[in-house]
């Protein structure tokens, strides 16, 4: 992926078949499906790929056990199918993970156990393994740090886990492999209409500040929590609304869990679920579901949300996490579609597609796990309503860039899959820090092949350092800037500017 080449393509391409606005899970899903159907596709992203919610998820590829409780059977069945497809097509990025629900009431074990048997059945052939009841002894063996006071036993079940930002980058690569064009730091400004039908968009390059027009037969707005604003620019009186709901995660040292299994808490003090999941040698604990009025690309965790996670997590852990144990805090906004008088935790995670009167397709809602289906649904609608020659979707069997089976998840380069050797050949493979998995070779690869332009791109989404340990990321920022500026041949003050920008951002990731 090369940004300069792609920006030049815009200048020469007279008209695209399809433009996607938004480089998160939704937009990438649309672009990849459109490419698989042989359309000429451009995807633009205002910031970096995955910079929005799509790098801030709980990192689960799941049917969503808790949606069973809401009676959303069709959503669970759809997501379980997508879970299987995602695991098949990206085994270097998605893995089968065991989740344990520790039970403290005798009734909980059969209650949750039966629900999980239904979950297994719904997955059918794409199941990742049967759920099982665990005795108290077995539960402790599997999670040595589980709170043992009045522990009754547990249930183990299977779901998927992935690296969301790495998936986003790999999807961007896959789009390019399949003939599409992706550009980060290119912002949608407005729509262009001819005869009152959309015929393109105006954009601004966030790096050079130059603005230009891009023509297309089809335009898709897939901008997550930002989608309503863009939809209103197209159709001011539209009835659909996004109700953003904030979710916070805390990152702890792996010694708090001491297990390869995750804990799932089925009923927190506010009636939600909470996960403690091993990820990149740390434990991610979350999340919250807080309705918010402000939509920001960098949402901030509130004190209540932090306290809520710590107080609910400590009920299940022998070693009680304190604020000072938190290595990183990251926060995302769910793009939920609003229904009157419903709290955000009961709002559906199902997606909706709206084709406006002036022909713009707006994709709203959804979840990471169903990104492919969301994209396919948009293109199926395009196929049924436009007079474009469109082939059937091929994404069900489309391997994601770097596809490789049997990668070892203890290898910090595993998410590159088949590209690992290329990455390693870029420079030194000695980690820059004892606490973080990042090397000079990864930084150079990120710049040359993954369109990384800033320290943040490298530390937050090409590697996950900022989410793993925010303070340690700050301490290596200078070295990262040095390697980057030499590779980019940057001007004298670039390093200092970049460090200041990164420090301002990173202070929101530690307590
Ligand atoms: C706390 C939390 C935990 C979650 N956990 C899970 C999970 O474990 N599993 C799961 O399946 N799902 C999960 N989800 C849901 C999932 O993460 C989201 O549904 C998904 O990431 C949303 O993707 P998106 O592309 O719609 O939005 P985003 O990722 O926000 O992408 C939208 C993009 O549009 C860009 N954009 C905005 N305006 C413009 C413009 N003018 N021009 C160009 N680009 C623009 C933004 O910069 C942004 O990158 C979670 C969500 C949250 C909040």
In short:
The protein is α+β, with helices and mostly antiparallel strands.
Mean pLDDT: 94
Quaternary structure of the protein: single chain
Q: Gap between N and C termini, in Å?
A: 36 Å
Instruction: Give the bound compounds.
Output: flavin-adenine dinucleotide
Strand content: 15-25%
* Helix-and-strand structural type: alpha+beta
Which CATH class of the domain at 3-53 and 165-241 and 348-393? Answer: Alpha Beta
CATH homologous group name of the domain at 3-53 and 165-241 and 348-393? FAD/NAD(P)-binding domain
Task: Describe the largest sheet.
Answer: 10 strands, mixed
At the third CATH level, what is the topology name of the domain at 3-53 and 165-241 and 348-393? FAD/NAD(P)-binding domain
Number of strands: 18
- Globally, the shape reads globular
The name of the CATH architecture of the domain at 3-53 and 165-241 and 348-393 is 3-Layer(bba) Sandwich
- The count of helical stretches stands at 16
CA gyration radius, whole angstroms: 22 Å
> What fraction, in percent, of the residue positions are helical?
25-40%
Low-confidence stretches: none
